[in-house]
Amino acid sequence: MTKPVIYSIAVFFAMILFILFFLIFAYTPRKNIRELSATDPVFMRVHKSQNMLCVPISGDPRESAQRCFGELFKAFYMLKKTYPSIAIKSPRARWNRIDPLDRTTWNGSYGIPLPSAISILPEEVSRRVPTVSIAVWTYDTLMELTTIGPYSGYFRALNRLEDFAAQSQFMLGELYEEEYLLGPTILTKGDQKKYATKIMVSLRHASSF
Question: pTM score, two decimals?
Answer without folding.
Answer: 0.76
